[in-house]
Structures are given as C-alpha cells and as structure tokens.
Amino acid sequence: MVTVAYLALGPDLPVPVGGTDAEHAYWAPVEDLDRDGTRLAFDHSEILAEALEEVCRKLEYTPVATAFCAPEFTLSELRTVYEVVWGQSMDPSSFRRKVLKTSGFVEPTGEQRMPATGRPAALYRRGNAWVLSPPLLRTGGQPA
Asked: Ramachandran region of residue 78, left (φ > 0), alpha (ψ -120 to 50) or beta?
C-alpha cells in the first residue's frame, strides 16, 4: 500500500467532493479523527501528525497566519490563529511585542476597530515579509 499525502493551507476551502475510493469525502476537525469510530487507516495518523507539525512550523517561520484573517485585522485576531493551530494560549502583550518587532510581518493601516466594550483596537494588514526573522516560536516546540 502506498500513501500519497498533500498539504495545503488556505482559508475558506471548498467542500470536498468524493471520488472513486473516497465516496464520502468531508472536512473534519483534527481532534475528532480518533473519536466515534473515525479512526484513520494504516499509518495515516502518523502522516497527519507530520502534516500538522509542518503547519505549526510554517506559522513559526512565515506570515501564512495572516491568510486566515480578514484583509485588515487586529493583533488579537491574528493571535487567535496561532492559538488554535498551536493548541496553546499566548500572552497578548508578548505576542504583540514579537509581531511588531518582526520586520515586514504586519503593517499598521492607521485605522482602528471599535469593540463592543473596551478601547479601540489598531488594525493591521499583512506586511511584505516572506520569511519571519526572527521567527515566532512556539513555547514547548510541539503542538498540543
């Protein structure tokens, strides 16, 4: 048995359509893949784990997380992308400091979004960097 795996990152992916050997193709949350009889066959759990680790690394060294935000976003919204993918909470002030210190990661729009409560949040857009230097490293090095 040969398994070929492809990894693609993108927001708002289309609904998958089943084919000859995958009649019931669907998206599933990663945390649900080993529950309720939805176990992966053969070594596919290991392949998935490697793919997830690659996604975590991409977030450390590239600005790809900004693709999962609106064209203009708050740093809180960007932090949420990291927290969801990495499965860990991040200190808001530390995250803000690291993001703003990383050249070309984000650019301020000069505008603010007024939340329902609290003070206005500055809006940013993706910067021109292709690689983050310094990288935005996870604590613990491994996803949760």
From this structure: alpha
Digit-by-digit pLDDT tens for the chain (144 residues) are 788 888 888 888 888 888 777 777 888 777 777 655 567 778 888 888 899 999 999 999 999 999 999 999 999 999 999 999 998 999 999 999 999 999 999 999 999 998 888 889 999 999 999 999 999 999 864 443
Tell me the DSSP string of 68-128. GS-SSB-HHHHHHHHHHHHTS---HHHHHHHHHHSTTSEEEEEEEE--SSSS-EEEEEE-S
Distance CA 134, CA 137 (A): 9
